[in-house]
Amino acid sequence: xxxxxxLAETIAxxxxxxxxxxxxxxxxxxxxxxxxxxxxxxxxxxxxxxxxPAATAATPLAELGLLQSGQPVRRQLAxxxxxxxxxxxxxxxxxxxxxxxxxxxxxxxxPPLPSWARATLADFTDWLLAAHYRTLLPxxxxxxxxxxxxxxxxxxxxxxxxxxxxxxxxxxxxLGID
Length: 178
What we know:
The protein has about 180 residues and is mostly helical. It has nine helices and no strands.
């Protein structure tokens, strides 16, 4: 899809690109999750039902073992879904450097965890849609679906994992795309 130059010059973030594409294609501007998300989430929950029968969309990924790449649950889920699961970066290990401890004392706060470290199964389903946008969202039908496709396409172009891309990321300063 060609985006007119005057409009392209105003697009700075992943989310702004999704809104522009949605507008140009005349799609509904609904940003809420769609039936495609619901169907995939139901399939994910069915695949996890043996190991995590109480899992819901709000279940944290850390509780399910989906944040660690070597966990058997990831391989089982990938086999059940017949999809490659998106990689999730390892949670950062933070230790207070000695000079900070001497300046601020032992109570120096650790930085907050990245958003993906608090992610839920619903977020993971978003990542699956984004990572497999070509097959799961061949014709995006709403702003939400365009957002997931743009995240997936951006991840492909940048060589990043879909879990690392946010709608608020700026193409130039955050992702290094010009």
